[in-house]
Design goal:
The complex is a heterodimer of chains A (151) and B (122). Helices cover 79% and strands 0% of the residues of chain A. Chain A is mainly α. Chain B is an all-alpha fold. Chain B starts with a helix and ends in an 8-residue tail after the last helix. The chains are: A mainly alpha (151), B mainly alpha (122).
Chain lengths: 151, 122
């Protein structure tokens, strides 16, 4: 069987991706997680004297805490199977990636297991975030010093 | 007014997740690649000065998705770069966005103390 033939057969057998259904599920779950985040933001502003700007950080930390509990109980994996990007894209997905890698790492010990594996999945997000932030800030700095744009 | 802010957070946050889902389904990319793309997108949007207005508009709908991580990294770098020049790019980067990473490390450690591995990815 040549590769082309194989690809055709493979395409025939694989069920078509339900684009719309997946998108809808991601929309609903992602939207709900962000709405919960909005509620937590208000709680911090009303009860703990945070401002609009500073409440964001506290909210993110709280959401990561919620992700930890759900991950430990094995519930976040179930949510992820249903929601796809809806549970992966919010910061809870980042928390889930770190927490699940940390828990799994225990089988290899605290230093080489938990310590080394913690950012196994989430590390790429940090690399590409920091990398792109570095180059964008650099480009803007150069453009400002040339007088093309202002801060 | 309160209801609308929840509605806008729901819609904007949901739409960002739909973008992620489409990158995964249509672009046939892994979740890891998708998240990397979204983080870079958030950083680029802040470089263009577009992400802060989105946060003002959508609140948690813009701060909870991972795009906000790219945004706050860039934002911290830009603010410090304005004050201190070249060095500021490095010193400012984690100024705004420390909470997500420190929370993930602390809670990841606590979770490893409390929960037992189940053999499958949690």
């Amino acid at each position: 069987m040549d590769p082309q033939e194989y690809q055709q057969i493979e395409q025939k057998i694989t069920p078509p991706t339900p684009y719309f259904k997946n998108a809808l599920k991601a929309f609903l779950v992602g939207g709900i997680i962000c709405t919960i985040g909005q509620a937590i933001t208000y709680l911090y502003i009303i009860f703990f004297d945070f401002t609009d700007k500073t409440a964001g950080n506290a909210t993110v930390a709280t959401m990561v805490f919620i992700a930890m509990v759900l991950t430990g109980l094995g519930l976040y994996r179930k949510l992820g199977a249903f929601a796809g990007a809806g549970s992966a894209v919010p910061v809870t997905g980042f928390g889930n990636a770190v927490v699940s890698a940390a828990i799994e790492g225990r089988t290899e010990g605290w230093v080489l297991g938990v310590g080394s594996n913690m950012f196994k999945l989430a590390g790429s997000v940090i690399l590409f975030g920091v990398g792109s932030a570095f180059f964008i800030a650099l480009i803007k700095l150069i453009l400002v010093s040339m007088g093309v744009v202002e801060w | 007014m309160l209801f609308f802010s929840f509605l806008i957070a729901f819609i904007v946050g949901g739409l960002i997740c739909v973008v992620g889902q489409l990158i995964m389904d249509v672009g046939k990319l892994t979740p890891g690649h998708t998240l990397a793309i979204l983080v870079v997108a958030g950083a680029v949007l802040d470089g263009l000065g577009l992400y802060e207005p989105l946060i003002d508009f959508a609140g948690a709908g813009a701060t909870i998705p991972i795009t906000s991580f790219g945004n706050s990294l860039t934002h911290g770098a830009l603010v410090e770069a304005e004050k201190h020049g070249w060095v500021g790019v490095l010193t400012g980067m984690f100024e705004v966005t420390s909470s997500g990473i420190s929370a993930a490390i602390v809670f990841g450690f606590i979770a490893a103390l409390i929960f037992k591995p189940k053999g499958k990815a949690n």
